[in-house]
Design goal:
This protein is of the alpha/beta class. It has a single domain (about 5-175), classed as Rossmann fold (3-Layer(aba) Sandwich). The protein is built from 6 helices and 8 strands, in the order E-E-E-H-E-H-H-E-H-E-H-E-E-H. Helix 1 packs parallel to helix 6 (about 165-175). The chain is globular, with a radius of gyration of 15 Å.
Length: about 180
């Protein structure tokens, strides 16, 4: 039987992004990794409610050559350890690469759903950028936008907008266990 999941963006949802010129960037090392306040408890609560936690993250700095895959993997391994994530799925491509995994396309979400027998209709995608919300919508999940006030295009019609992940937890759990 398919299970519900929370598909969580990484930088800005699980960990503190590095902000430059009003835009979020990933940490450059495990030492720079800082889990956002409330995230450990939020993940624990979602796991206790039976959700599978999958991080889905665009990491175009790999394609750009400004960050190596080993560093990204080390950061992801540390997050998996701290937050009991079932899997961390990355897209290492840039916009021009023409892949099917880079958000706003739903490839990472749909592939993880197939691999782990996850029910997207009872799942939620959580992100802090328009790409996350559009990927979740395209995959058929509910969507949560964490509004960090970035100087960029806002998402179109997320199902829920919050300031912090923990604010969305009751709603996420409700959607995961709803009958419709």
């Amino acid at each position: 039987m398919s299970r519900p999941a929370a598909f969580l963006d990484r930088d800005g949802v699980l960990n503190r992004p590095i902000i430059r010129s009003g835009r979020p960037y990933p940490p450059e090392s495990v030492a720079e990794l800082s889990v956002l306040p409330g995230v450990v408890d939020a993940c624990r609560e979602m796991c206790a409610a039976g959700l599978t936690l999958v991080c889905v993250t665009n990491q175009p700095d790999i394609a750009r050559g400004t960050q190596d895959r080993a560093t990204v993997s080390a950061i992801n391994d540390r997050l998996r350890e701290l937050l009991a994530l079932h899997e961390v799925v990355i897209c290492p491509h840039d916009d021009e690469d023409g892949c099917l995994c880079r958000k706003p396309l739903p490839g990472m979400i749909l592939d993880a759903a197939r691999r782990h027998d996850l029910d997207v209709s009872h799942s939620v995608t959580v992100g802090d950028r328009w790409r996350d919300v559009e990927a979740g919508r395209a995959a058929g999940t509910w969507t949560v936008f964490i509004d960090r006030g970035y100087d960029e295009r806002p998402p179109v019609h997320p199902d829920l907008t919050v300031k912090e992940l923990e604010e969305a937890i009751p709603w996420i759990i409700d959607k995961a266990h709803s009958l419709s």
